[in-house]
Amino acid sequence: MKTPYGLMKDSTGNYVIKENEAETVRLIFQLYLIGYSLGKIVCHLDISGITSPSGNTKWGRAAIDKMLGNKKYIPIVGMKDYFAVQFEKHERSNVDEENGARKAVRYASKKVPDGSHILAIG
Questions:
Q1: Given CB 3.0 to 4.6 Å as the disulfide criterion, which of 27, 50, 54, 89 pairs with 45?
Q2: pTM score
Q3: Separation between Cα atoms, residue 20 and residue 36, nearest integer Å
Q4: DSSP H helices in the chain
Q5: How many CB atoms lie within 10 A of CB 117?
Q6: Which residues of 22-33 are buried (b: 16+ CB within 10 A; e: fewer)?
Q7: Whole-angstrom Cα distance, residue 122 to residue 24?
């Protein structure tokens, strides 16, 4: 199994935080919580020059989505932010969990600030 971005295994096989990458993980969670879409996060990372875990200059939306849902990031972002993202993902989902059908009303994202207050990493 691949080690998640922002983490590495120590000599005993336990995960430890890789701080330079963990900053990017925290940024991604922060951007999502203030209302950025997956595509907007990809653009922000691209403009900031932050390469993807695979070394590509551009992140994939699926990689961001998987990261936001991965419990292994709790030590990096904290329980509060991790579960806030899970709640937000549920709110943004276009699938009604009760019947599996698409929701009649689309999610309208929050008005996202211009991002000038967010520090770029990298």
A1: 50
A2: 0.80
A3: 22
A4: 19-33, 38-47, 61-69, 74-77, 79-92
A5: 7
A6: bbbbbbbbbbbb
A7: 8
